[in-house]
Amino acid sequence: THALALDFDTMFGRPAPAGAMTPSFTPAGQQMVYDTPNYAYGMLANDLTGKRMVPVRGRIHARKLSDFADYIRHSSEEFVFVLSGELELRFENGHAYRLGAGDSLYFDSAVGHVYLSLGDTDAEVLACCVDGDARRPRDAI
Question: Shortest CA distance to 43 belongs to which of 23, 62, 26, 60?
Fold first, then answer.
């Protein structure tokens, strides 16, 4: 989408929003959930098109690096806040951060990373990705 200067809404044929954004309310337990072997993603404000951030409530199932085929990379900045449990954020450059409930980390998502739950229970997080490419036009997502 960067090279073509297109936002996701245009790319997928959805109309771009016009005017002021209408607030989006997501009731508890009503978010669209994508459950994968490593993570369950609860998409928040999923009805909004053209938004600049992607907020997600996540449950981390993965426990070891070998649960992944490769590190995850995407062109954005990412913020994670741990709601419950403990997790390790491990990066392909060798850095690792251990986070508990109430801890947070802000990082460059282009650096390969994985979330790993520590302990017997899955960690629950609130995460948000925003476009980190300052060279992109402001209206392109």
Answer: 26
